[in-house]
Write a structure and sequence with these properties.
The protein is of the alpha/beta class. The chain has helices at residues 5-8, 16-23, 34-51, 55-58, 83-94, 113-116, 139-156, 172-181, 204-212, 231-235, 252-264, 277-288, 308-311, 339-342; strands at 66-70, 102-106, 161-165, 189-191, 218-220, 241-242, 268-269, 298-299, 312-313, 324-326, 336-337.
C-alpha cells in the first residue's frame, strides 16, 4: 500500500476519479489489484462522509432496498468427498439462520475432492502453489462429481439455488461434458471452470466454447482487474454470469461500470467477495444497491478473525435476514473503524500503529 503513498498525498480524496487516474495502471490481476481497489473504496467512504450521504447516493442512487447474498464465507468442514458428505454439508447450510436462498459449494478442482477421490483425473502434476491442478478427468471422476451434485440437489430441491465453484482446472471437453450432465438439475451456475483464482488471463475464447455448448449458466471473473479485461467476456457473451470482486477489479465504481456494460449484453452479475472482510461487505452492499436488474446476489464475506465484529461499528444485527441484507442509509460506507476497540488486538511492537 505504501507504494502508492506519494501518488495520493496532497490530492482531494473526494475527487475519486482524479485520484484513480493515477493509480489504475499500477495494479494487475488478483491479488495485485487489491491495494488499488482498497484505496478506491476508502476514497468513496471519505467522499460520502464528507457529503453526509451514503455511497449509493454518489453512485446514482439505489434501485433496491435490500440485496440478496449467498453463503460465501459461511462454510463448514466437510467430512470426506463422498456424495453423502456433500449432501450433509448443504443440509447444514440450509438450516443456517441467514436463510440463504442460494448456496455455493466448492467441488472438483476447487475442493478437497481432487485429493480425496481416487482416480479423479489423469494429470500427475499436483504441486505448484494455489490451485495447481489441471487435467483431463477420468470417467470415474466425472461420474463421482455428478453424483455429488445430484446428492446436494436432492437436499436443496427447488427451494434453494445451488451454485458450484469448480476450478480452475477443467479442460474444455470436460467442462462441456460436466455442464451438459447437470443440465436437468437447473444449477445457478458453474464458476471458474477454465480460469479463476490467481489466473492472470481471461481465456474468453475457451469459455465461449463451453457456454455455447450448454444451457447450464457459466460464470467467471473474480480474479479479473479493470473493465478492459471484461470486454471480451461480455461482448462475446463468453459466459452467462460475471462475478467481479470490488477489492480486485479496481473498486466499486469499476464494478458498477462493468455491471452496466454486462447488462447491455444480456450477461448477469453475481459479485465475488468471500475474502473482503467487513469493510468489503459494506462496499458490496452499497454498490449492489445501485446495480441494474442483471444483479443476482453477492458472495457474503464474514469477519476473520471474529474480533473484527468488535472493531467495525454500524453493521446490523443480524446482518443477513431471509437471504438478504437491508441497505443502510448512513454516510459513506455506513460503517466506522473503532480505533479504541482495535488497540487491544495490536501485536507487540505495533502499539503506535494508530498514532
Amino acid at each position: 500500500m505504501l507504494f502508492y503513498r506519494e501518488l495520493v498525498l496532497g490530492e482531494d480524496p473526494t475527487n475519486v476519479e482524479r485520484v484513480m487516474f493515477k493509480l489504475r495502471r499500477l495494479g494487475a490481476f488478483k491479488p495485485w489489484g487489491s491495494a488499488v481497489s482498497a484505496i478506491e473504496v476508502a476514497l468513496w467512504d471519505i467522499a460520502g462522509k464528507a457529503a453526509g450521504l451514503p455511497v449509493y447516493k454518489l453512485l446514482g442512487g439505489k434501485v433496491r432496498d435490500r440485496v440478496r447474498v449467498y453463503n460465501g464465507g459461511v462454510r463448514f468442514p466437510i467430512n470426506g468427498a463422498s456424495p453423502q458428505a456433500f449432501a450433509d454439508d448443504v443440509a447444514k447450510m440450509k438450516e443456517r439462520p441467514e436463510g440463504f436462498t442460494i448456496i455455493k459449494e466448492g467441488v472438483a478442482f476447487h475442493s478437497h475432492m481432487v485429493r480425496e477421490t481416487a482416480n479423479f483425473f489423469y494429470s500427475e502434476v499436483r504441486d505448484g502453489g494455489r490451485y495447481p491442478n489441471y487435467g483431463l478427468m477420468t470417467e470415474q471422476g466425472l461420474k463421482h462429481l455428478v453424483a455429488c451434485v445430484e446428492a446436494m440437489k436432492d437436499v436443496l430441491g427447488d427451494e434453494i439455488g445451488l451454485a458450484l465453484d469448480c476450478g480452475p482446472g477443467f479442460t474444455v471437453p470436460d467442462a462441456i461434458r460436466f455442464a451438459r450432465a447437470v443440465e436437468p438439475l437447473n444449477l445457478m451456475w458453474l464458476e471458474d471452470m477454465i480460469t479463476g483464482d490467481y489466473t492472470p488471463h481471461v481465456s474468453a475464447d475457451l469459455y465461449r466454447e463451453v457456454t455455447r455448448a450448454t444451457s447450464t449458466p457459466i460464470h467467471t471473473g473474480e480474479q479479473i482487474y479493470l473493465r478492459h479485461n471484461f470486454r471480451e467476456l461480455i461482448e462475446q457473451r463468453a459466459v452467462s454470469i460475471i462475478g467481479p470482486d470490488p477489492l480486485d477489479i479496481g473498486g466499486i465504481a469499476e464494478l458498477k461500470w462493468v455491471a452496466e456494460y454486462a447488462d447491455l449484453h444480456g450477461v448477469m452479475m453475481a459479485p465475488h467477495g468471500i475474502a473482503d472482510g467487513l469493510i468489503g461487505l459494506a462496499a458490496l452492499v452499497q454498490v449492489s444497491a445501485t446495480l441494474p436488474q442483471n444483479y443476482i446476489a453477492f458472495e457474503y464475506p464474514v469477519a476473520r478473525p471474529d474480533w473484527w465484529y468488535d472493531i467495525v461499528d454500524g453493521l446490523p444485527d443480524p446482518i443477513v435476514k431471509a437471504g438478504h441484507i437491508d441497505v443502510w442509509d448512513r454516510p459513506g460506507l455506513g460503517v466506522t473503524f473503532n480505533v479504541k476497540a482495535a488497540r487491544q488486538y495490536l501485536e507487540a511492537g505495533d502499539e503506535d500503529f494508530f498514532n
